[in-house]
Amino acid sequence: MNEPVNKSAGRKSISVSLKPRELMTEDPRLNGVWTAQIITLFPKAFPGVLGESLTGRALAEGKWCLETIDLRPYGIGKHKNVDDTPAGGGAGMVLRADVVGPAIDAALASAPVGRPLVYLSPRGRRFDQKMAQSWADGNGVILLCGRFEGVDQRVLDHYNIQEVSLGDFVLTGGEIAAQAMIDAAVRLRPDVLGNAASTVDESHSNGLLEHPQYTRPAEWKGREIPEILSSGHHANVEKWRLEQSRKLTQDRRPDLWDAYQNKQDD
Ligand code: SAH
User: Fold this and answer.
1) How confident is the model at residue 29 (pLDDT cuts 50, 70, 90)?
2) Ordered domains of the chain (ranges, CATH)
3) Local confidence band at 197 (pLDDT 50, 70, 90 cut-offs)
4) Does the CB atom of residue 170 touch ligand 1 within 6 A?
5) CA-CA-CA-CA torsion for 91, 159, 181, 94, nearest 10 degrees?
6) Nearest protein Cα to ligand 1, atom 22
Protein backbone atom coordinates (compact mmCIF):
# COMPACT_ATOMS: atom_id res chain seq x y z
CA MET A 1 0.00 0.00 0.00
CA ASN A 2 1.17 3.45 -0.80
CA GLU A 3 0.76 5.45 2.36
CA PRO A 4 0.93 9.16 1.68
CA VAL A 5 4.01 10.52 3.38
CA ASN A 6 2.07 13.39 4.82
CA LYS A 7 -0.70 11.38 6.33
CA SER A 8 0.15 12.19 9.92
CA ALA A 9 0.40 15.88 9.09
CA GLY A 10 -3.07 15.79 7.66
CA ARG A 11 -4.45 13.90 10.60
CA LYS A 12 -3.46 16.71 12.88
CA SER A 13 -6.61 18.57 12.14
CA ILE A 14 -7.15 21.99 13.60
CA SER A 15 -9.91 21.92 16.16
CA VAL A 16 -11.69 25.20 16.33
CA SER A 17 -13.06 25.92 19.74
CA LEU A 18 -13.44 29.27 21.36
CA LYS A 19 -12.94 27.78 24.77
CA PRO A 20 -9.48 28.37 26.15
CA ARG A 21 -7.60 25.09 26.25
CA GLU A 22 -6.84 25.30 29.94
CA LEU A 23 -10.55 25.43 30.71
CA MET A 24 -11.22 22.26 28.76
CA THR A 25 -11.55 19.46 31.24
CA GLU A 26 -12.01 16.92 28.51
CA ASP A 27 -12.22 16.76 24.74
CA PRO A 28 -15.93 17.17 23.97
CA ARG A 29 -15.46 15.17 20.77
CA LEU A 30 -14.79 12.08 22.84
CA ASN A 31 -17.98 12.75 24.70
CA GLY A 32 -20.26 12.23 21.74
CA VAL A 33 -20.70 15.94 21.14
CA TRP A 34 -22.27 16.88 17.80
CA THR A 35 -19.34 17.57 15.48
CA ALA A 36 -18.99 19.16 12.07
CA GLN A 37 -15.88 17.86 10.29
CA ILE A 38 -14.92 20.01 7.35
CA ILE A 39 -12.47 19.01 4.66
CA THR A 40 -11.25 22.23 3.09
CA LEU A 41 -8.33 23.99 1.45
CA PHE A 42 -9.16 27.00 3.62
CA PRO A 43 -9.39 25.94 7.29
CA LYS A 44 -8.82 29.56 8.33
CA ALA A 45 -12.28 30.35 6.97
CA PHE A 46 -13.69 28.53 10.01
CA PRO A 47 -15.42 29.04 12.35
CA GLY A 48 -16.10 32.27 10.45
CA VAL A 49 -19.55 33.55 11.19
CA LEU A 50 -20.30 30.38 13.15
CA GLY A 51 -18.03 31.81 15.86
CA GLU A 52 -20.45 34.71 16.42
CA SER A 53 -23.59 35.08 18.50
CA LEU A 54 -25.57 32.02 19.53
CA THR A 55 -23.70 29.41 17.49
CA GLY A 56 -20.40 30.91 18.68
CA ARG A 57 -21.40 30.80 22.32
CA ALA A 58 -22.60 27.21 21.98
CA LEU A 59 -19.28 26.34 20.31
CA ALA A 60 -17.36 27.97 23.16
CA GLU A 61 -19.46 26.07 25.68
CA GLY A 62 -18.68 22.76 23.98
CA LYS A 63 -22.29 22.15 22.96
CA TRP A 64 -21.05 21.36 19.49
CA CYS A 65 -17.64 20.92 17.91
CA LEU A 66 -15.92 22.04 14.75
CA GLU A 67 -12.99 20.20 13.25
CA THR A 68 -11.25 21.17 10.04
CA ILE A 69 -9.21 18.78 7.94
CA ASP A 70 -6.77 20.80 5.85
CA LEU A 71 -6.46 19.41 2.33
CA ARG A 72 -3.08 21.03 1.67
CA PRO A 73 -0.87 18.62 3.65
CA TYR A 74 -2.30 15.80 1.53
CA GLY A 75 -1.03 17.55 -1.61
CA ILE A 76 1.42 15.87 -3.93
CA GLY A 77 5.14 16.63 -4.15
CA LYS A 78 7.24 19.50 -2.98
CA HIS A 79 4.53 22.02 -3.78
CA LYS A 80 1.76 19.97 -2.22
CA ASN A 81 -0.35 20.18 -5.33
CA VAL A 82 -3.97 19.33 -4.71
CA ASP A 83 -5.39 19.81 -8.19
CA ASP A 84 -4.69 18.99 -11.81
CA THR A 85 -6.11 19.70 -15.26
CA PRO A 86 -9.39 18.01 -16.22
CA ALA A 87 -9.09 14.72 -18.10
CA GLY A 88 -10.44 15.32 -21.59
CA GLY A 89 -9.43 18.97 -21.52
CA GLY A 90 -11.38 22.09 -20.73
CA ALA A 91 -11.13 25.04 -18.40
CA GLY A 92 -10.15 25.00 -14.74
CA MET A 93 -8.67 22.46 -12.38
CA VAL A 94 -10.00 19.41 -10.57
CA LEU A 95 -9.19 18.30 -7.01
CA ARG A 96 -7.24 15.04 -7.24
CA ALA A 97 -8.69 11.77 -5.99
CA ASP A 98 -5.37 10.76 -4.37
CA VAL A 99 -5.42 14.00 -2.36
CA VAL A 100 -9.07 14.18 -1.36
CA GLY A 101 -9.33 10.42 -0.66
CA PRO A 102 -6.78 10.31 2.20
CA ALA A 103 -8.32 13.45 3.73
CA ILE A 104 -11.70 11.73 3.75
CA ASP A 105 -10.12 8.62 5.31
CA ALA A 106 -8.73 10.80 8.10
CA ALA A 107 -12.14 12.36 8.72
CA LEU A 108 -13.84 8.95 8.74
CA ALA A 109 -11.25 7.57 11.14
CA SER A 110 -12.41 9.95 13.86
CA ALA A 111 -16.11 9.83 13.02
CA PRO A 112 -18.69 7.62 14.71
CA VAL A 113 -20.50 5.19 12.43
CA GLY A 114 -23.38 6.64 10.47
CA ARG A 115 -22.23 10.26 10.34
CA PRO A 116 -23.34 11.63 6.94
CA LEU A 117 -20.56 12.26 4.43
CA VAL A 118 -21.52 15.15 2.18
CA TYR A 119 -19.95 16.89 -0.82
CA LEU A 120 -21.13 20.47 -1.19
CA SER A 121 -22.07 20.78 -4.80
CA PRO A 122 -24.40 22.77 -7.05
CA ARG A 123 -25.39 19.41 -8.61
CA GLY A 124 -26.62 18.07 -5.30
CA ARG A 125 -29.99 17.75 -3.67
CA ARG A 126 -31.11 21.15 -2.46
CA PHE A 127 -30.53 21.72 1.26
CA ASP A 128 -33.66 22.46 3.27
CA GLN A 129 -34.99 22.64 6.81
CA LYS A 130 -35.81 18.94 6.81
CA MET A 131 -32.23 18.03 6.01
CA ALA A 132 -30.99 20.47 8.65
CA GLN A 133 -33.23 18.75 11.18
CA SER A 134 -32.04 15.28 10.23
CA TRP A 135 -28.40 16.38 10.58
CA ALA A 136 -29.23 18.00 13.92
CA ASP A 137 -30.81 14.73 15.09
CA GLY A 138 -27.59 12.82 14.36
CA ASN A 139 -24.10 13.05 15.84
CA GLY A 140 -22.66 15.49 13.30
CA VAL A 141 -21.71 15.71 9.67
CA ILE A 142 -18.61 15.43 7.45
CA LEU A 143 -18.57 18.13 4.77
CA LEU A 144 -16.23 18.11 1.79
CA CYS A 145 -15.72 21.61 0.37
CA GLY A 146 -14.82 21.66 -3.31
CA ARG A 147 -12.86 24.34 -5.14
CA PHE A 148 -12.04 25.04 -8.81
CA GLU A 149 -14.11 22.75 -11.06
CA GLY A 150 -14.80 20.39 -8.19
CA VAL A 151 -13.65 16.92 -7.16
CA ASP A 152 -12.60 13.88 -9.21
CA GLN A 153 -15.77 11.81 -9.70
CA ARG A 154 -14.05 8.61 -8.56
CA VAL A 155 -13.85 9.97 -5.00
CA LEU A 156 -17.57 10.66 -4.96
CA ASP A 157 -18.29 7.17 -6.33
CA HIS A 158 -15.84 5.34 -4.06
CA TYR A 159 -17.17 6.80 -0.81
CA ASN A 160 -20.74 6.99 -2.07
CA ILE A 161 -20.81 10.65 -1.06
CA GLN A 162 -24.12 12.44 -0.91
CA GLU A 163 -24.07 15.71 -2.90
CA VAL A 164 -25.92 18.62 -1.31
CA SER A 165 -26.46 22.07 -2.79
CA LEU A 166 -27.09 25.36 -1.05
CA GLY A 167 -29.18 26.54 -3.99
CA ASP A 168 -29.33 26.93 -7.72
CA PHE A 169 -26.27 29.11 -8.12
CA VAL A 170 -22.54 28.50 -8.30
CA LEU A 171 -20.16 29.53 -5.53
CA THR A 172 -16.38 29.65 -5.78
CA GLY A 173 -16.00 27.03 -3.08
CA GLY A 174 -17.96 24.94 -0.62
CA GLU A 175 -16.96 26.85 2.53
CA ILE A 176 -19.78 29.38 2.55
CA ALA A 177 -22.30 26.63 1.83
CA ALA A 178 -20.81 24.55 4.66
CA GLN A 179 -21.18 27.42 7.12
CA ALA A 180 -24.75 28.09 6.08
CA MET A 181 -25.73 24.43 6.47
CA ILE A 182 -23.91 23.95 9.78
CA ASP A 183 -25.61 27.07 11.12
CA ALA A 184 -29.02 25.75 10.12
CA ALA A 185 -28.34 22.37 11.74
CA VAL A 186 -26.60 23.54 14.92
CA ARG A 187 -29.34 26.01 15.86
CA LEU A 188 -31.77 23.08 15.91
CA ARG A 189 -29.70 21.24 18.52
CA PRO A 190 -31.22 21.30 21.97
CA ASP A 191 -29.55 23.95 24.18
CA VAL A 192 -28.08 26.02 21.35
CA LEU A 193 -30.71 28.74 21.05
CA GLY A 194 -32.17 28.37 24.52
CA ASN A 195 -35.01 30.83 24.89
CA ALA A 196 -33.36 33.32 22.57
CA ALA A 197 -35.39 32.14 19.62
CA SER A 198 -37.98 29.59 18.81
CA THR A 199 -37.41 26.95 16.17
CA VAL A 200 -40.97 25.71 16.39
CA ASP A 201 -43.07 28.34 14.66
CA GLU A 202 -40.50 29.95 12.40
CA SER A 203 -40.40 29.92 8.61
CA HIS A 204 -40.03 26.44 7.09
CA SER A 205 -40.60 24.56 10.34
CA ASN A 206 -44.37 24.28 10.11
CA GLY A 207 -44.70 24.62 6.33
CA LEU A 208 -45.54 28.33 6.48
CA LEU A 209 -43.43 31.47 6.22
CA GLU A 210 -43.23 33.50 9.39
CA HIS A 211 -45.58 36.38 10.14
CA PRO A 212 -44.17 39.96 10.23
CA GLN A 213 -42.31 40.96 13.39
CA TYR A 214 -42.34 44.36 15.12
CA THR A 215 -40.67 45.95 18.12
CA ARG A 216 -40.31 49.39 19.72
CA PRO A 217 -40.75 52.25 18.95
CA ALA A 218 -44.54 52.11 18.68
CA GLU A 219 -44.41 54.63 15.84
CA TRP A 220 -41.62 55.02 13.29
CA LYS A 221 -41.69 57.40 10.29
CA GLY A 222 -45.46 57.62 10.67
CA ARG A 223 -45.83 53.83 10.66
CA GLU A 224 -47.51 52.17 13.61
CA ILE A 225 -47.34 48.65 14.91
CA PRO A 226 -50.55 46.73 14.08
CA GLU A 227 -52.96 47.49 16.89
CA ILE A 228 -53.74 43.91 17.70
CA LEU A 229 -50.14 43.29 18.81
CA SER A 230 -50.55 45.81 21.61
CA SER A 231 -53.94 44.45 22.69
CA GLY A 232 -52.50 41.97 25.17
CA HIS A 233 -55.03 39.45 23.89
CA HIS A 234 -52.85 36.41 23.36
CA ALA A 235 -55.36 34.30 21.42
CA ASN A 236 -56.16 37.15 19.03
CA VAL A 237 -52.48 37.81 18.48
CA GLU A 238 -51.90 34.15 17.63
CA LYS A 239 -54.87 34.19 15.26
CA TRP A 240 -53.56 37.33 13.54
CA ARG A 241 -50.08 35.83 13.19
CA LEU A 242 -51.40 32.64 11.67
CA GLU A 243 -53.51 34.63 9.17
CA GLN A 244 -50.46 36.72 8.23
CA SER A 245 -48.34 33.59 7.83
CA ARG A 246 -50.90 31.97 5.60
CA LYS A 247 -51.35 35.07 3.47
CA LEU A 248 -47.62 35.61 3.07
CA THR A 249 -47.02 31.99 2.11
CA GLN A 250 -49.89 32.03 -0.37
CA ASP A 251 -48.60 35.24 -2.01
CA ARG A 252 -44.89 34.46 -2.06
CA ARG A 253 -44.56 30.72 -2.21
CA PRO A 254 -47.41 28.96 -4.00
CA ASP A 255 -45.32 25.75 -3.89
CA LEU A 256 -45.18 25.81 -0.08
CA TRP A 257 -48.82 26.84 0.12
CA ASP A 258 -49.93 23.84 -1.97
CA ALA A 259 -47.88 21.47 0.18
CA TYR A 260 -49.29 23.05 3.36
CA GLN A 261 -52.86 22.69 2.16
CA ASN A 262 -52.33 19.09 1.13
CA LYS A 263 -50.98 18.36 4.62
CA GLN A 264 -54.00 20.03 6.23
CA ASP A 265 -56.28 17.90 4.06
CA ASP A 266 -54.63 14.63 5.16
N1 SAH B 1 -17.84 22.97 -11.97
C2 SAH B 1 -18.81 22.81 -10.95
C3 SAH B 1 -18.85 24.01 -10.01
C4 SAH B 1 -17.62 24.15 -9.19
S5 SAH B 1 -17.75 25.48 -8.06
C6 SAH B 1 -20.19 22.64 -11.57
O7 SAH B 1 -20.45 23.24 -12.60
O8 SAH B 1 -21.03 21.91 -11.02
C9 SAH B 1 -16.50 25.06 -6.91
C10 SAH B 1 -16.96 24.41 -5.62
O11 SAH B 1 -17.84 25.27 -4.95
C12 SAH B 1 -17.73 23.12 -5.80
O13 SAH B 1 -16.87 22.02 -5.87
C14 SAH B 1 -18.59 23.07 -4.55
O15 SAH B 1 -17.93 22.44 -3.47
C16 SAH B 1 -18.79 24.54 -4.21
N17 SAH B 1 -20.13 25.02 -4.62
C18 SAH B 1 -20.42 25.81 -5.67
N19 SAH B 1 -21.73 26.07 -5.75
C20 SAH B 1 -22.31 25.43 -4.71
C21 SAH B 1 -23.65 25.30 -4.26
N22 SAH B 1 -24.67 25.88 -4.89
N23 SAH B 1 -23.89 24.57 -3.16
C24 SAH B 1 -22.87 23.96 -2.51
N25 SAH B 1 -21.58 24.04 -2.88
C26 SAH B 1 -21.29 24.76 -3.98
Assistant:
1) low
2) 6-186 (3.40.1280.10), 201-265 (1.10.1270.20)
3) low
4) yes
5) -10
6) 122
